[in-house]
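Q: My hope is that you can spare some time for a protein that puzzles me. Underneath my words sits a plain record pairing an amino acid chain with its backbone structure tokens. Those tokens are not coordinates but codes from a learned vocabulary of shapes. Thank you; the sequence and its tokens follow:
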Amino acid sequence: PVPLVSTSEIPVQQWTHVALSFSRRSFKLNIDGVDAGQKPCARWKLTSDPWIVGKAPFGQADPLDERAAIRSDGDETDLKRPGFSGCIKDMRLHTTEIHSSVIQKYVKSVKSHKQFKASSATSVIEPKNKEKGPVVTLLRLRHEVTPTSINQQFSSQMDMQVIELFSGIAETEQQHHRGHELPSLLDLHPMTAIAAIEKDKTKLLSYHLINHLPLERIRARFCAIQLFNQRLIHVLPLVDFSQAASAWSLAHRLASLSHLIIWEVKNKAWMGVLRQTTTGGGAWATVNRPRAMRAKEKGDDDDGRKSVFGQIYRQLHFIRPSQLRSDQRPWRVTYEGEGGTDAGGLFRDSLSHMCSDLESTSTPLFIPVPNSRGFGDNQEKYICNPSSKSSLHLSMYAFVGKMMGMAIRGGHMLNLDFPAVVWKPLVGQPVTRQDLESIDTVAFNILDKLVQADKFGITSDTFCDFFDHTFTTLSTNSREIELKENGKNIPVTWDNRLEYVRLVEEYRLSEFQTHCNAIKRGLATIVPVQLVPLFTWQELEKMVCGKREVNLDYLKANTRYRPPFHSHE
């Protein structure tokens, strides 16, 4: 225990404001807006131990008791400890810093017991025996950040930006400490990060969801996330994530909080399981690149069998998956008719060829998103081809999942550009309307106008003049799909337009489900898919494809030059 005794007495039978502030090095006591004591202490970490105001409960270690006992030679009747009768323990701990001037202003504004009770900014704790001690109040200021307000105002996307912000600051600090491990977010002092942000306000600009918030609010949220992870790191290895699909399980609840679990916590458990399940010694694949090139030029390879991807798929997909569970190169390549020994370069080149084939006309598995026509966001992304549902195609999708698993195990980044509707099903997250809108903006704008037709001056009498459609829709690859039986003969009217919108959304939400399930089956043969829900879809994408952006400053700080090249050139 760390005791702190006030330098002045607290009056009895009178309302008194008591505030305790602390930093990494000292504690300060403030009574009615006036400094009443300070105590230096060694560096400490925030724990779940209770804070006590007053006398410690019977049987609990109390340094003041020990010192009094020494002075009175063991006579407990002579003990005279400072403090009022009784105690207030397990107080709510707020992470907001309050300047002494704010405390003084508040104390002056509260003149009486009546005013104090009328104040909506306070919560009062009164000792039962007013005759033996003063009334001590714990104040909750109007602008203070409480756990409830933190939860109400932060979405999952905002939490991810908070973690990304502090991770970026830790990464920046690492640039000046070459050769050392990246600072742990579990031990990162939030005030150090806040000081860096105050020094350079541009650090917040790219985080559009939180850059309008006070820095204290951001720091408080990170403190809550940090404390959650400090507790979780000891529990995580004991959780059975095979039950993640069951809503009643702890694994399911943790998976729903995956955005709050920082990378180093989940990665520690993940890497341990990967090491235990590494069984592969690698395989060999022979590739005929001229054959693949001729097939692409002639356009006679509709299924992509002759492409580099197709050739490697036929040789590796049907071997035992355990041969591919390697933390090194999962296969070695021989280019038929070409010289070269695979010391790593040929493997990486074959991987690059396969990714290029997947996002081109060489294979029928992936097509550009509808926004690629020049509307909305994500115009460069590729999505599963709804028409590719044959057994061969689903088998190829499963091999794509195996490629993702091998990339995760060995750190072999894949140059694939998929939207959230592909990654989310792999981690067990539901695809939302916003995800679909981000790849087909025009179609969903039309649906929005149908729902809000009255706002555009359209009535039941004029509806058919503006919208002449039946219960059909176009798939992502522009095929006509009937939304209900005999839908092409059922017109969309003012009365059934909302049903039409609902059926379109239901179809689009499940349009890629078969393909993503096949990818997930392949992924499950290489990595422990039960643990995958622990990650967000953005983290899974980063594990498979790496970061999209290159930090030039970080690259320069870790680049060594040898003659005849120099850093100033």
